[in-house]
Amino acid sequence: MSHQEPEAKIFACSQSVHLAEQIAKHYGIPLGKATFSKFSDGEFQPSFEESIRGLRVFIVCSTFPTADNLMELLLMIDAAKRASARHITPVIPYFGYARQDRKDKPRVPIGAKLVAKLLETAGATRIMTMDLHADQIQGFFEKPVDHLFASTIFLPYVKELNLEHLTIASPDMGGSKRAYAYSKFLNSDVVICYKQRKEANVVGTMELIGDVKGKNVVLVDDMIDTGGTLTKAADLMIEKGALSVRAICTHAILSGKAYEKIEDSKLLELIVTDSIPLKKESKKIKVVSCAPLFADVMHMVQHNNSISSKFLM
């Protein structure tokens, strides 16, 4: 009797069900059944409603606030470990706490490192994520990390726009490496914004390094939170003579007055992935799904195939 390798199973935390369903659909299997019991005080308990013994289990969960999302993922990993799953891969399209990747002042935590330890302690055997705030976060893990780039889905979109005088821009110095990678692929110029923050989420002053006059600009960033930096950069570029300004941001956190800022800004379009579900629709926001990318890579991981073809940059 030939031994057939068991197919993987895909499960979702409660806030990432829609994305997980899309991933499972592209993968070609139904989403696994899991339930979440809630106690009256708000505590919850996940439960796998089908056998996962000896299988590879993918648990899809973006760890955006509240912290319940991260706790849910940890409990599901622990449940999978205790249910004898062979491989447990948390699929974390948006890796929360990634902005806390170093001590930028005394007496603060390194949150990204703590989350990495928590995931491994819970029982994760491999991590899959996309566009980490800092690439070095991969080094916080002792387990393999598949770090996917959303550029594989954004670059074809930008190419289809067929923009003349295209210029790629980074809204800050930290994102210059990402901007250069995009510009190399698209054979375009690069401009960088230099900003000084008054405090977290508040931009003080902003200067432009490079020329945008007569250019169609595409700003590239890994996330958009309050939208302050991007909208300020877009307005500054139009002021400096840019023909149009679009923005590409992998993770649409969009907290506070972000939606209003985007609507009121000179941004023509904001292109994001569905790593975080949008709180509301906006005519300026275009969502490009990351589900096919994750499904393809999960398939490759399950069948021990190389995933390097999925990296455009």
TrEMBL record:
Pathway: Metabolic intermediate biosynthesis; 5-phospho-alpha-D-ribose 1-diphosphate biosynthesis; 5-phospho-alpha-D-ribose 1-diphosphate from D-ribose 5-phosphate (route I): step 1/1
Cofactor needs: Mg(2+)
PROSITE patterns: PRPP_SYNTHASE
EC numbers, comma separated: 2.7.6.1
UniProt GO BP: 5-phosphoribose 1-diphosphate biosynthetic process; purine nucleotide biosynthetic process; ribonucleoside monophosphate biosynthetic process
Root EC class: transferase
Record carries keyword rRNA-binding: no
Protein name: Ribose-phosphate pyrophosphokinase
Cited function: Involved in the biosynthesis of the central metabolite phospho-alpha-D-ribosyl-1-pyrophosphate (PRPP) via the transfer of pyrophosphoryl group from ATP to 1-hydroxyl of ribose-5-phosphate (Rib-5-P).
InterPro entries per the UniProt record, alphabetical: PRib_PP_synth_CS, Pribosyltran_N, PRTase-like, PRTase_dom, Rib-P_diPkinase
Family: Belongs to the ribose-phosphate pyrophosphokinase family. Class I subfamily.
Signal peptide: none
Chemical reaction(s) catalysed: D-ribose 5-phosphate + ATP = 5-phospho-alpha-D-ribose 1-diphosphate + AMP + H(+)
Domain Ribose-phosphate pyrophosphokinase N-terminal stretches: 9-123
GO CC terms of this entry: cytoplasm; ribose phosphate diphosphokinase complex
